[in-house]
Amino acid sequence: MKKNIKMDITPKIESLQRMIKSKKTHSDFARVVEIAKEYKSHVSGIGLEEYLKQFNLREDDAMFEQRKRLTNAISKPVASSIKKPFYKVSRNRNIKTEIEIEDKKKLDAVNKMVRNFYGSDKLNNRGLDFWLKNRFLELVFVDPNSWIVVEWEAKPLNEVLEPVPFEVSCENVINFKFKNGVLQNLLVKTEELQMMFNGRKEAKEEVVDAYTLYEIGWSLKMVPVDPQLIKLVDLASNQKLVVDDSKVKEVVYLATYNETKLDFIPAFRVGYLRDEATDGRTFVSPMDSAIPYFRKALKAVSELDLSITLHTFPQKIAYYSPCQHRDGNNKCKDDTMMPSKSTCSSCHGTGIAIHKSGQDIILHKMPEDKSEMFDLDKSMVYKTPPIELIKFQDDYVRSLKEDAHLAIFNSTMFLMTEKGFAKTATEVDFNSEGINDTLFPYTEKFSEIWKTIVQICIKLSGFNGQFSLKHIFPSDLKLKSTGMLMNEYKIASDSNAPSFVIDQITAEIAGQIYNGDDLAMKKFEVRRKFFPFKGNSKEEIALFMATPYVAVFTKILYANYEAIFTDIEKENPTFYVMDYTKQWEILTKAVEVFKTEIENQTQSERIDFMIGNPSGASDQNPTPGTDSGDDNSKQ
Asked: What is the pTM for the complete model shown?
């Protein structure tokens, strides 16, 4: 941010000091911190034991702690399955973005700021788009009331500024004020490391609370510093030392004032779904409507894991043989060696001959009288526990996952297996409507933030003229999986749908397959553009190839399609990034080469056929005594 040299910042410092001393937070502070904590626990899987409830009538503290240790919550994978459709939306290839500025130099500066907004453009996978597709979505789910403040460091006039996102969690946002929907001020508290003596002989790093106040056109930051160390530092023209002696121990603050030269505060909240509990003053996560099911699932999974651990295992019931171990004159009797009364070294005081492993064998002495023999199968039995209750608990947990998806998307389409989906393909359009209704507000917020940040970059570039920004999501968000699209393709083909419909489905399948591989997608788009029979079935193509109504050029291109493009790629490695006119010129020449080769080959085959024809041989060697030109020779 730009430094101010002349302005007296004392009144602003006093205003910030009053805010710090009052310790006043905004009215919904407790609410936003509470829900953010629970959201993060469910998404990350960390700290969920805090939300398990003890049933005091049945569990003492020890039993409750044991249940918490045995619980493997499913909150994290369920939350992940809910987030996946949102990732699909943000990575849609058909999002239309446009920045129109008459000044090309300023436009280049803005594009550079956008590329460097998150990370560095040298990595080719960072920037504003990367931040929106990843970090923004993470914040929307776990902390919708967090703020993003766009900050930058001062640079010489001839250098491009580098705005970056400064994330402020909801628990660090102390207060803020809106007027007619426009942010007037924002007070933020952050923790920083500062070298402090604090009565010691040597300075050590300590965590201190720093406060920053953002208002329209400027910002002011105050951070505690050590008075002995700060004397060794040259203060900038926009910095000032402030002594607060109102506390038990005197505190010295370093106040830094910056001007933004903007007519608005470059800050916004990431959330977009208004919280009814605060009358819309704050926001909730996209998964908020499913939180009751997350809580139910946590309890149900805890009980299921406990039941499986304590009850669901095979139990062996058997008659035991008393230990017959002898050691000299001593014999084991009722767990004690008699007459020595020492502990038996074989049964270790149990009095039972125990079968400990697969290498052991329990032997019974063969009785002299066969009537004294007993059925060995009846000496031991394995009992398996009833699993009806366990199965009910497991089914209940699975149903809660479906309920969570229904609460958010009004659909369980993203939970269906490909095989299960094939049976309900006609329901896709209905499901897609509910999903699009859920995701539409997210796309609006996504576009709004993109335009806000780009507008800030335009202002920072120094451009003050007219500009135009566009960020538009397609009406069809294309959230179907590859399996769903393949099923649609089969249905369209079997029902003889128009070729352009089949071609469009093919393009969507390719978009799924080549997602993330821009070069492969580009190659597909170019090849698709020049393919002569887009969307036609094999039977239709065979019919076209057999008719005289299709040009020879088209037939040769289709019959040798792969070979032609292989030759083109060898001779023109950059073919796929050329403009259409150049591509068509190269393709035409390549087809002509094949056409000439085919014609020459056909001509050669005709000559060979004539040479090898018996009737041709008689023409070449007429019967002696006759004239090939005589009329008789024609008979």
From this structure: 0.69
